Amino acid sequence: LLGQILDQWFESEPLKATLATDAVIGAMASPHTPGSGYVLLHHVMGELEGRKGAWGYVAGGMGALSQAIAHAATAQGAHIFTEKVVCQVLLGRDGQVQGVALQDGMEVRSKLVLSNASPQITFLELTPQEQLPKDFVQRIQQVDTRSPVTKINVAVDRLPSFLAAPNTHDGQPLPHHQCSIHLNCESTHLLHQAFTEATHGHPSSRPMIELCIPSALDPGLAPRGCHVVSLFTQYTPFVLAGGQPWDEQARNAYADTVFDCIEAYAPGFKASVIGRDILTPPDLERIFGLPSGNIFHGGMSLDQLYFARPAPSYSGYRSPVPGLYLCGSGAHPGGGVMGAAGRNAAQVALEDFRHL
């Protein structure tokens, strides 16, 4: 239990609550939910350039990381096709993978297929169901994908100036602008309250907000003097109480709540906003293929980790279909921008390829 771990090490409630945010990031859970301690561990394990537990920004935005991987692949002779929708994994009579069929009618033949789509899309939508064991299908259907995340991308014409650390006259970024700024987490009770509201189908009235300003470190992301602000917020239910739709009114009402909260910490923030893009859990599912909007393709609870991710007996990247591999966040060891699942899956696929 996260609360017990933090109580052992810290006395300050704001510090404990701020650390607790990394135990509930992307999870429909509160700091009091059993197993939440693992999610905190998941976010601080590993290292960046020799610094343990450190995180970094990608110069040019997150897309630059994808481009770097793409360039490395094409340099080795890979062909990359984008904007091509896969509609089915093709199987032979023996049940062995033969490639994929695209929506435009084109077929790509291959002895191996690696999918970094979610387990739900890979096995429930793209793979012929008669080729999969019933208990495996049932397990994938039962994966807990609940997600509390609404992402709001904001364009502003000046840096936010916080009451706790006002801006200097020259308007240059200060050290805290170059970090992750956590708001509405003065106590773990506040986080638990926000979680409880969402479990009843209501967007949190005082949501947890993780605010980053990537342009403070990478000025090329915005025009001179302007900035982009990334708001990772919780808790918002996928389905609203009473079956209400996540329409423009509901979206904007929640975003206004978030902006009112930021305004209390940084007066003038709302006036600085030039534009905003609101992505609720259904939006994240529709646009990015994240099941229920879950950034990890499935909850990072202890019953859905290690040997059970995505299903018992299938944590080694191979699937019930020979030649079909899972290499995304729904595979071991889970989500986060670390490439571990992809690297491990590639090694397993290469080992199998040598025997084909």
From TrEMBL:
The text of the family note is: Belongs to the carotenoid/retinoid oxidoreductase family.
Keywords, ordered alphabetically = FAD, Flavoprotein
Which cell locations does it reside in? Answer: Mitochondrion matrix
Primary role: Probable oxidoreductase that may play a role as regulator of mitochondrial function.
* Amine oxidase domain ranges (all copies): 40-164
Give any GO molecular function from the UniProt entry.
Answer: oxidoreductase activity
Naturally occurring in which organism (per UniProt)? Caloenas nicobarica (Nicobar pigeon)
Can you name this protein? Pyridine nucleotide-disulfide oxidoreductase domain-containing protein 2
